[in-house]
Amino acid sequence: HKTLPGPAFGFDFSRPLDFEQIYEKVLNYPVRNYSPAGMTALPCPLITSGLPAQAVEQLDQSLRPFGFFAVSGIAAAPNTK
Length: 81
Hints:
Layout: H1 19-27, E1 44-48, H2 53-63, E2 68-72
Parallel strand pairs: 1-2
């Protein structure tokens, strides 16, 4: 069986990412000609910093359809000295 490699995408960070375009590329990626029994794509974490929990939740809801999930990064403890 001849198969295609998994999807790989490069991003140009010199301008804002067009998530709609990325989503369309993912949806239209050619499907392999065999069934990878039991394999499923896992969401990719997007680590945030400095956002309140409510903002992270809203961001997470927006990113889930694109295969990402937003999480809060580790915050540094305030310097009390």
